Amino acid sequence: MSALHQEARPLFALFNGQARRLCLGQAHQLRLRSGRLWLTVDGRLGSPAEDVLLQAGEAWTVPGRRGVVVEALPSPGDAEARFDLLLTPDAA
Prior knowledge:
By secondary structure, the chain is mainly β. It has no helices and eight strands.
């Protein structure tokens, strides 16, 4: 059985240079299908903001109840970054 819950959110796409803010109530795994993403997770008291750089094929757990800015970075051969968001087992 997969380590991820079977329910998936729709595929997301951002053109290079485009950014979006995600506010998820529950933790999700972000799986990058193509392109590159720069993520900045909001800090909390005692926990500074965190930056993460993802390449195509990589995944990262987006914490629940924290804002995350996702920005598509230029990547050779990709005009956009495409990614999925999947509920983590703990969130199900």
